[in-house]
Amino acid sequence: MTSVFFSPKLSPTRGREERKPLARVRKRAWGEGISRSFTCRCVQVLAGAVLSISGALAQEPPTVAASIVPLQLIAAAVTDGVSKPLLALGAGQDPHDISLRPSERRTLAEADLVLWIGPALELPLVDILKGETDRLLTAQDIDTLLLLPAGRNVDPHLWLSLGNAEKIAQALAARLSQRDPAHAARYVENQARFAATLSAVRVEARQRLEALPPKAWAVYHHAFRYIEAEWQLPPALALTDGNGNMAGLRTLLGLRQDMQHAGLACLVAEPGVETAKVRSLLDMPQMQVQVVDIMGVQQTRDASAYARLYIALIDAIVDCAAQR
Ligand SMILES: [Zn+2]
Predict the structure, then answer these.
(1) What is d(CA 202, CA 215) in angstroms, rounded to the nearest whole number?
(2) 292 near 270, Cβ under 8 Å?
(3) Ligand 1 centroid to 243 CA: how many Å?
(4) Which end of the chain has fewer CB atoms within 10 angstroms, the N or the C?
């Protein structure tokens, strides 16, 4: 497969680790040069301390903590070569049903910038992050973002709109450039490169969907509204709603009928979903369950990870549609 997402990286990553020793050497040189001209030892110590503090402030890029993996992947594209974004809500957290561990509270408290979806998804964070406007980038509040309704709420899976991903990256690059002018050029350059990657993703996704457009399709968890909207796919039949709540018995019976009518033999599901349970709920023993890493937890957190995540989802939809 010759695709931009699987080819080796064109530009070498100038990591934070690589630059650190250089910065440290330079800092020491400044301190020594100035301290020689002072005779009083107290002044010397004080000057050294002030210099090392201001040096650290100038050199350490702000730490970004993303609430969930898909946002971490977008952030990784923006901070590429400057810093590595942290993940606030660790493995095993269901973003629709968060219960915060102490280490996760600490990550949220210590980050210079927290990138999260907003109350539509991480409701328990609302109280914790209240009043922290300077430290927060709330995706669902970004201007001109596409927000689709899910019942009476906003569908929180908004990172699955390519346009939204681009706007989130833009907003993040702008905020980081303000906070960290020393790396502003790099953030802006990274963001432009991410936008170009998204254009390539759009082309690639269109090709794959046009080859086999799904007429009807089914998912375990209804996380795909933004993909449906982007590609004018028919609404997926879903076993659970956008918040991960299982359909009631009557809905389930209707669903089973719809799936049989549509001749569906495959359903897209996230890792951890029990295939046997799905088959028995639907009373469709032959049902294929196409597992895909919806949250991207298996992805290496590099600048093209979001692109790989998106294409993997498109592939899962297409592969499922091929099984009839
Ligand atoms: Zn979800």
Answers:
(1) 20
(2) yes
(3) 6
(4) N
**Cα–Cα distance for residue pair 305/85, rounded to 1 Å:** 13
> For domain 212-322, is the CATH number 3.30.390.50?
no
Residues 223-242: b if buried by 16+ CB within 10 A, e if exposed: bbbbbbebbebeebbbbbbb
Q: What separation in angstroms does the CA of 266 have from each of 49, 77, 142, 250, 259?
A: 64, 33, 36, 21, 9
| Tokens representing residue 102 in the block | 């102490």
pLDDT tens digits along 6-46 = 443 333 333 333 333 333 333 333 233 333 444 445 445 45
19 Cα to the center of ligand 1, angstroms = 38
- Asked whether the predicted pLDDT for residue 265 surpasses 50, the reply is yes
Beta bridge partners of 66: 87, 115
Q: Which CATH topology does 64-205 take? A: Rossmann fold (3.40.50)
How far is the centre of ligand 1, averaged over its atoms, from the C-alpha of 115 (Å)? 17
